[in-house]
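Researcher: Re-running this chain for the archive, since the previous output was lost when a drive failed. Same request as before.
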Amino acid sequence: MAMRSMFRRRRKKVCSFCHSKDGSIDYRKVNILYHYIDTRARIKNRRRTGVCAKHQRVLSKAIKRAREMAFLPCK
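Model: Regenerated structure tokens:
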């Protein structure tokens, strides 16, 4: 019984942008972008956030644009 719970499979992460109806990523939506940067203002990787590759590319561009427009802090 204890062995069974030890090897339990993890639930597959689903991309939050693919799953939601309003899956648009915009550099002006700062409250969404804050979830994808850490305390040192670095962009979190896909493994940690669970975002698909397509949306990770769009997300990183949006974060970089928001930094350039001074909506988000720089490194």
